[in-house]
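User: My collaborator and I are trying to settle a disagreement about how two of our proteins should look. Neither of us wants to argue from intuition anymore, so we agreed to look at predicted structures for both before our next call. Could you fold the first one, then the second, and keep them clearly separated?

Assistant: That sounds like a sensible way to settle it. I'll keep them separate. The first protein:
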Amino acid sequence: MTARHTTQAKVQNLATKSLELSLAAPQVVAQRVGRMMLAGTQPSARDQQEFYRMSNEKVTAFYESWIGMWTQACTAYWQAAASLYTVPGPFTPGSSNPLAAFGVGKATSRMVTQQVRAVTDVLNAGITPVHAKAVSNAKRLSRSKR
């Protein structure tokens, strides 16, 4: 699989997760708010456990998302810094690109592709824990009995 196809697959994965999250999140919110309304001022032990789980999951997913994005951003930063040492400079002898002195050419295209891949990876790292929790909650809550 080429780098272009890998990037397209990652973008497609991000789009799929975003769509699934946009469908699962309102479903989970509706089910939980409905459960809160039915519980009233005297929630059962099962309801209390679900409400505790709800708040705990949100905090956990936030931290997992934040750490994943931060880690991926740091990785992308170091990859970009390392690529500066492997990209031939604009004044490399024998360069046939007349625009190379202005930074236009294969090196620039490769760096733009690398940045697109880095942004996609950071967004994927951020949405993955939230997506996983929301989709699993939607499945679990849709089949549970009140």
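The second protein, kept apart from the first:
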Amino acid sequence: MNSGRLRGERRPGGALEAEVLALLQSSRQALTPGEVRRHLEDGLAYSTVVTVMSRMFDKGLLTRGKQGRAYAYAPVADTHGLTARRMRQVMESGADRAAVLTRFVEDLPAGDEQLLRELLGDLPDGP
């Protein structure tokens, strides 16, 4: 899973996290930092991979469980679920949720707005 960068060349911000996430999402099982390091084929230090994966766990992007002396990590959701999670976190960071949602819907292209209306129509009524 070589990124095409030259050895020693720095990744753009968030790129290693994205590579780790893509690898974990394509895996059928949780992976340890050592396994992730081997799959990335980038000559990364083990401590770098551990740090990145620990931070991703702290952000709520990964789950983890003990596997021998290390943790094995897995994504909390697929790509679509993680995107939806980020959207919700951004929405919740605003002081006025109604204003944020209103602006969001107003800025949607017509096709997306129609899809949202259809999805909302398919939801069962609240309590």
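Some points you might bring to the call about the second protein. The longest strand covers residues 62-67. The chain is about 55% helix and 10% strand.
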